[in-house]
Amino acid sequence: MRPVLCHTPAVRLPEPLRPGDLVAVVAPSSPAPRGELLAGLAWLAQRYRVRVRADVLSREGYLAGSDARRAAELASALVDPEVRAVFCARGGYGLTRVLEGLPWAAFERSPRWLVGFSDITALHLEAQRRGVVSLHAANVTGLGRATPLERARLMALLERGAGEVWSDLESVHAPSGVARARGPAVGGNLTMLATQAAAGRLALPSGAVLFLEDVTERPYRLDRMLTSLRASGALSRLSAVVLGDFTECAPGPDGVTVEAVLAERTAALGVPVVAGAPFGHGTRNRPIPLGFTAVLEGPTLELRAPG
Questions:
Q1: Which domains occur in the chain, in start order?
Q2: Global confidence as pTM
Q3: Does residue 108 carry a catalytic annotation?
């Protein structure tokens, strides 16, 4: 099935969080390391009431418990009228196994913040399809070690809907001489985008600014994913591409680097491409409000609230 290209739906911002609001922590993907999860929970609990199931540390191989457990946990967080935000414990793998049958109609009627990254990209794509802003940001296991700046930016977005400004981005490709573009911010983990496209679940709005990052993928695999996405038509109507960290994506015996692959494959799209954006699996993971308007002007990117 080919990915669907769609016009940008009316974008809605979930209600701002306030200190003392109830937030849910869910583990829909891989098991979370206990110490890292507890550190993140402790930080959240300083500001919000945190609801977490007793079995959140469940483990069945590479999954955080059975599909039934993870689906029930996530479904409850999506529909509970008291829950104002859903924080994901960890990425890894497993979310796509439970996407079908989740109560998306109820979520659409009463949207709340969805927070996470990596495997959680699949959740952001579901929010995007319904015109709801979501937050590509550290999972709970990363909150305990997040920098003060990352924490401050996260709270500013969740509580005030504040925008973001990134500077000193590196121009990879600028068809008109200057990297200049404007469009809705979409994307996240490249592997997840390619996986969802193959499943017919990728619907990028026309004119989107696509954010990409990944981890532990050889350059040839990144080439294959970008080539497949382009062939599917999913990348045919972008305004720009913003590259974050591609962590531990070492060259193979052929010596081809991730930088060379990304530059060649994205330049073929014929839109502005910038690199060095501070998000991904590396030491920097600034929050990205997906659904905000991304405005690229040379080395500076601004993320503006809709409306």
A1: 22-160 (3.40.50.10740), 163-304 (3.50.30.60)
A2: 0.95
A3: no
Let me know if 281 is a catalytic residue: yes
Q: Is 213 a catalytic residue?
A: yes
> Which residue is catalytic, options 29, 118, 134, 239?
118
Token pair belonging to 104: 């998306």
Q: Per-residue pLDDT tens for 15-54?
A: 999 999 999 999 999 999 999 999 999 999 999 999 999 9
Q: Which of 36, 164, 213, 217 is catalytic?
A: 213
